[in-house]
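Lab notebook, bench 4. The sequencing result for the construct came back, and we need a structural model before the next group meeting so we can plan mutations. Quick request posted to the team channel:

Model the 3D structure of this chain.
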Amino acid sequence: MIYVVYFLAGLGVGVYGLEQGLLSADGMLARRWTIWLGGALAAFLLWIIPTALIVNGQVTTVPGLEIVADLGLVLYCAAACLGWLAIFLRFTATIRRRVVDSLSENAYGIYLIHYLFITWLQYILLSVALFAVAKATIVFTGTLALSWAAAIAMCRVPIGARLLGARR
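Done. Here's the predicted structure in token form:
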């Protein structure tokens, strides 16, 4: 159900385009970035406190604690996403950087093909004796770099550029 809500919210935000309305650099989201961060902190507490009580075995003494924890998690995820989006809109939306522009132009291609690289990099590192954080860093960095390079290469071929909607 949450995916349907996010999908419909995305449609509503995208109706006027990304440069206008809620997602504009001077839009309501960017102007109220502190409220969104405060809401994310409040939702985090709404999630983490009941979760800590559940882990400590208090679930039987307080009815509905699991529902509160689940609701807190959903609210925290939404508020944190919107809070970070608000921060980036407020402080970096008007700054142009070549790397970020390239990432933005190739985001759809990266999204389409990243699963191939993430799956195989994880598989390759299964037998390697490293800490999980090191493996995660290698997989994330490798997946991003390989997906990005593949998306750029695909956009240089006419059919790939047409499929990915490239403006080259």
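The chain has two domains: 2-95, 99-164.
Will bring this to the meeting.
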